[in-house]
Design brief:
By secondary structure, the chain is of the alpha/beta class. The protein has helices spanning 3-12, 29-41, 56-64, 75-84, 102-106, 119-130, 145-152, 162-170, 206-219, 227-231, 237-246, 260-269, and strands spanning 25-26, 46-50, 69-72, 91-94, 111-116, 138-144, 171-179, 184-185, 192-199.
Length: 271
Amino acid sequence: MTISDLRKLLDSLDLFPSKKLGQNFLYDQNTLQLIANHALKDSRGLIIEIGPGTGALTDYLIKDASCDYIIEYDLRLADYLTEKYKDRELTVIQADAARFDFDALVKERQWTCIANLPYAVSTIIIAKLLDLKNKPQSMTFLLQKEMADRLVANPGSKKYSGLSVKVQSLYNCKIVQKVSPNVFYPKPEVDSALLNMQSNGQVFADDLWKRLGTVLSIAFGQRRKKALKLLSSCFDADQLVSSFEKLDLSLDLRAEDISVENFRKIADDLG
């Protein structure tokens, strides 16, 4: 699909790309094929696409393998996709992915998630997926590059955050490629990046995962302050000191200097 074709299609749907919804439609064929290749390479079970837009990526997914569900928030696009794929074994769901019950849909089945996520909701949706009972085995996202950099950030980096820790606790993450604004309509004002996430096999008990989330929220809540001092406001100080010393961690560390593995061990010690 060329940019001219895309514009004609959007005009026929009486759809003007919404800045509020972060509607920047990807039309470059090489980039679409790249996303499909990485998303399907190690995919298992169900394939679910979030935010398919006009179905540009969906076409590549069903050409190279299959796609079981696509979840689109915009009603006009959802109606268009339902008609477009009426002869395919593909279910179109009109819903807000940030509020959608993925666990009810996938149940116990393995699944892969693919999405072109607007910056405004990317954190919300990724955090939601991480908190599911049945998490995706793999995820491939097209994101603002700034967001992708945050997710793969290492300890000691200003971009390292609580979400970095949660993501890397469960997934091996890799930025596959930077994506230019020139392959979208309308052009976003920033670069994007293709991020691939594969499960690392780590399993967390529900109570440990929730406790880790609490620890991260507190520790990163005021980045300039010492993590131990911040955590002592909600957890037993002696227990925290014991955990830090057992891990050979300085009591003066800030959250951004504590590794993913050590955050898990601290949360485990506080159980």
